[in-house]
Every structure is written in structure tokens, then in C-alpha cells.
Write a structure and sequence with these properties.
This protein has five helices and four strands; from the N terminus they run E-E-H-H-H-E-E-H-H. By secondary structure, it is α+β, with helices and mostly antiparallel strands. The chain has one domain. It has a two-stranded antiparallel sheet with strand order 1-2. A two-stranded antiparallel sheet has the order 3-4. 40% of the residues are buried.
């Protein structure tokens, strides 16, 4: 199995700030231009390692679902901001600024960036996909997610 680059891991020590990546796919997405529902916090006692990072889950069932096909659930661009990747860099992805497009989970860094991202989602995905090969091997961002407050603490 070929792994992606380094996952973005923030101060929580977990990928996606400890949020359950499987649970995103059960949330009702908001229309473009509206805030998405808050991400579901994982439990620090229900975890799995993938691609060198620890992922937390809200239920054992979600953990088992993840383990069956991790690549289906991990955020694109190793949890980095999709718009940032479209511009050629790696910056943190905020787990509460998410969108699922064609079965892929994308994160962005700030609400302002979400606005730019949503102006042309397909075009930004295309740019990011084109840039990813050139930056994927670079180290993960070590920056803090700006203005980020977790939707819920890890249990």
C-alpha cells in the first residue's frame, strides 16, 4: 500500500483534531455558502493508526468501518487545507470547515478561505490535485489552526 504524505496533526496529537472521519459521511451537508454542521468528536479511547497518525472515533462501529477502507474516509491532502493546496502550499485544515465532494472529504483553514474555495469548487479541486504531486512529500504543516475551537472535547 502506498501511503500519502504526512498527515496534519495538531496539538491534540490526533489527525483531524480528534474528530471522527467516518461520522462526516453521516452528517447532512449544508448548501454551498452555508456553514456545515460541526464535526463529531472522537473518543480518545477508540482509536486507530493510519499513515503514521492517530485517528479517533466516536464509536467502535465507526472505527471498524474506517479500518475496512481508511482511504475512503481520510481527508484529501492529508488533512491540509484544500484551498491552500490549490495555491501550492500546506496549511492546516479546520475539521469544522469541511465539505464532501464526489465522496471525498475536504477541509479548509478559515471561513474566509471557505468563501474562496466555494467560488469554484471543481476548479479548486483540479488545481489542488495538480499541485499535490509536487508538495505531497514535503513535511506536514506544523502551524496551529487559526481561530479554531473544537466542537467538542475528546472524551
Amino acid at each position: 500500500m502506498a501511503f500519502a504524505g504526512d498527515q496534519y496533526v495538531d496539538e491534540t496529537g490526533f489527525a483531524v483534531s480528534g474528530h471522527d472521519v467516518v461520522a462526516y459521511f453521516d452528517l447532512e451537508p449544508a448548501p454551498v455558502g452555508s456553514a456545515q454542521p460541526a464535526a463529531v468528536a472522537g473518543d480518545k479511547n477508540i482509536t486507530a493508526e493510519y499513515n503514521g497518525a492517530m485517528f479517533a472515533f466516536s464509536t467502535e462501529a465507526n472505527k471498524e468501518t474506517f479500518l475496512q477502507d481508511p482511504e475512503k474516509f481520510v481527508p484529501k491532502f492529508d488533512g491540509h487545507c484544500a484551498y491552500g493546496v490549490s495555491k501550492g502550499g500546506k496549511v492546516p485544515g479546520n475539521p469544522n470547515l469541511w465539505r464532501i465532494v464526489d465522496g471525498e472529504l475536504y477541509l479548509n483553514i478559515t471561513e474566509a478561505v471557505v468563501g474562496f474555495w466555494e467560488e469554484d469548487i471543481p476548479g479548486n479541486i483540479s488545481l489542488a490535485d495538480g499541485n499535490w504531486d509536487g508538495i505531497e512529500a514535503k513535511p506536514a504543516s506544523d502551524r496551529t489552526i487559526p481561530n479554531y475551537t473544537s466542537s467538542a472535547p475528546l472524551n
